[in-house]
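We both want to read discrete structure tokens more fluently, so let's practise on a single case. Would you supply a protein for us yourself, any chain you care to pick? Would you write everything just below, so we can both look at the same thing?
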Amino acid sequence: PDHVLLESGERLEARAIVCAMDPSESKPSFDSVKYQSVGTHYFTGASLKDTRWGKWLVLIPKKFGFKINHLCLMSEVAPCYSSNGEPLLCANTLGSGGSSMIDLCNELDRLAGRKLNLKHLKSIEVLKALPKSNDTKEAFIKKDGVYYCGDRWSSPSINGALRSGRLTAEAILRS
């Protein structure tokens, strides 16, 4: 709780130690983090120019039953993302697999209200994209004198990670 020992053997003394990474990597006494995977799918098609999506980040509520969680016409946000004047659409899904490109294109057609005739360019799946949160009240924990923070103890997002770090720092300053 009062120092960190580096691989080089150097010992760094501190009034408080904060661990802002997955502690199960170094301390087996912690449960390992469970993660939510995310898929990012890129499409193009001339008909995307006629959608009303513009520069908006289109959020799709879970209650509507779509695999797609949100989408954005990247080429509207940054025209340099356009290849040969063709629009670039980015659609994100939560969870791994389970969606064929035909299913995703059908969902995009439904969201647009018409047939888009999209061409799938690429899909990227990040298996450990978001930690499933422990939702502690303080947004961090203190164990054996060490503060552990991050979105794992808050909400799985950049905002959750920042909030957790801020609340940890405030707790240290109060102590």
